[in-house]
Design goal:
This protein has 510 residues and is an alpha+beta fold. The protein contains 12 helices and 10 strands. β5 and β6 form a beta hairpin. α1 packs across α5 and α10 packs antiparallel against α11.
Length: 510
């Protein structure tokens, strides 16, 4: 089929009309195509570059990659900062009824107790793949009190605290589960894109051959109509000179009308298949129905060799649906590990360590942090266990059953692949035999019609016989073209069944 075609990022990129969501500038309008002159290869290449199904599918790997980034983000550290101010005022006369403001030298100043505080703190906290939660950072608290000798003080603290699960929530199997699932989904999306490309290429081959068949069918039906018209004309002339009956003329007229209707049906089939092909190979919307389509004959290569045994063995490595099924089981096994961990008791080690400083000035308080005795430390454990823990155990049972179900489904898929490949190989063999038999049938139909027309001219055959032989020739011609195009479609179905469509067409996904 010509040189290799690589499906690069540019080839599979989304058309400029969709770039408006990423750019404030309007995308330039795509050029309007008024005619498509296609070969078998160019139709495939245009589909890879312009087919909307492929363009839509190319978003899924990008979305899956973004989802993986999001899942990995749970281990990003978080920077936090806060500042809190509080003020308290208390009426001392309520506590001492004998207090007399008039006898106090300071008046209302001694009646009220005022205190305020400003607390600022910052921290970096996060989660590690082993389940360790950590927080590190300083805090500074400024306190003022109007009724104490030291009416202003600074309390500083620098420390760290951790919570390390020892059972539930411990280990990378649990904490990296969502990341691994997201990465698996990313692989699944890549296989899904490959499947979409295979499907589109297969559809292009099928529709291209259907269009070619419908064109040749239309040509045969038109020739048949022309033959019927000539027969009608000849019969009318013979009837005028009295060598043919009026019945022969009526038979020819009826057959002429029938063949005219068959031409109309064939024309509609050509128009339909042209539309189907345009939909596969064009990203044009406006004026699409006005685009003319011209195709070259398909490259009928009857020398393609297949090795069903080897191709079937490779099908399990190449078929996207099978690889997706394996990846889905992998995802479910990850979920089993995650869910099993949820059935364990919660036992967490908690600890903190820090340095304190207290002074009437901020500088002095910070200097106090250097004193080895100003240490604050805690250590302990937290334990909990739901009884009888039916929620977690039920989830684990569901997860295990889902894995078992998918394993059975995988066996079903393996069986389906074996049958599909064998049937597709059998269809290729049958199509090859049909090509030979329909060619022979067409040759004999031509000879029979020639002989019948000679006999009709000599008055030794009837119009009915000639008309029947004309129909037989039309059917034989259509059957031969159908066998050829059927062979091409059988090859495409076989390549799809074995997952080798891209390799057979020398296409590479990057």
């Amino acid at each position: 089929m010509g040189p290799e075609t690589r499906l690069t990022a540019a080839t599979l990129s989304v058309v400029a009309a969709f770039a408006g969501v990423l750019s404030a500038k309007p995308a330039p309008a795509a050029p309007i195509v008024t005619a498509l002159d296609l070969t078998y290869r160019s139709a495939v290449e245009r589909a890879l570059a312009k087919n909307f199904q492929i363009q839509v599918e190319t978003y899924n790997p990008k979305i899956a990659k973004a989802a993986t980034k999001s899942a990995e983000g749970r281990f990003d550290p978080t920077l936090s900062a806060s500042a809190t101010f509080d003020e308290n005022r208390r009426d001392l006369s309520a506590l001492n009824p004998t207090f007399d403001v008039g006898t106090s030298s300071s008046g209302d100043a001694d009646r009220f107790a005022n205190s305020s505080g400003l607390e600022t703190q910052a921290s970096i906290s996060g989660l590690t793949p082993w389940g360790l939660n950590y927080s590190v950072g300083p805090s500074i608290t400024r306190n003022t009190n109007s009724n104490t000798p030291l009416n202003e003080s600074y309390d500083t603290f620098v420390g760290a605290s951790i919570t390390q699960p020892l059972l539930r929530g411990f280990g990378t199997d649990v904490n990296l589960a969502q990341v691994r699932i997201a990465r698996t989904d990313q692989s699944i999306s890549a296989w899904s894109l490959r499947q979409r490309v295979i499907d589109v290429v297969t559809d292009v081959v099928r529709v291209y051959n259907d269009l070619y068949f419908s064109i040749k069918n239309l040509e045969s039906e038109r020739r048949s109509r022309d033959l019927a018209r000539q027969t009608l004309h000849d019969n009318q002339r013979r009837a005028e000179i009295g060598v043919m009956t009026e019945l022969d003329v009526v038979q020819a007229q009826a057959d002429m009308a029938d063949r005219e209707s068959r031409v109309l049906v064939a024309e509609r089939a050509v128009a339909d298949n042209e539309n189907f092909l345009k939909q596969l190979v064009s990203d044009q919307v406006a004026g699409l129905l006005l685009v003319a389509v011209h195709i070259a004959p398909p490259p009928f290569n009857l020398n393609v060799t297949i090795d069903e045994t080897a191709d079937l063995a490779r099908a399990f490595d190449l078929r996207p649906d099978y690889q997706q099924a394996l990846l889905d089981i992998q995802k479910r096994n990850i979920n089993v590990v995650f869910t099993r961990n949820g059935t364990l008791p919660q036992l967490d080690l908690v600890a903190s360590f820090g340095l304190n400083g207290l002074d009437t000035s901020l500088g002095g308080s910070v200097s106090e942090l250097k004193t080895p005795s100003n240490v604050a430390a805690t250590v302990g454990g937290v334990f909990s266990l739901p009884i009888p823990n039916r929620t977690a155990r039920g989830r684990l049972e569901i997860a295990n059953l889902e894995v078992a179900r998918q394993l059975v489904a995988l066996k079903q898929l393996e069986q389906s692949i074996i049958i599909e490949v064998d049937n597709a190989a059998g269809q290729i063999a049958t199509s090859r035999k049909l090509i030979d038999s329909t060619r022979t049938s067409r040759i004999f139909a031509e000879r029979t019609l020639d002989a019948a027309q000679s006999r009709l001219t000599a008055g030794k055959a009837t119009t009915f016989e000639v008309l029947q032989f004309q129909r037989d020739l039309t059917v034989a011609e259509i059957n031969e073209v159908g066998a050829l195009t059927g062979y091409e479609k059988a090859l495409a179905n076989y390549f799809r069944a074995t997952g080798s469509t891209l390799e057979r067409n020398r296409l590479h996904l990057e």
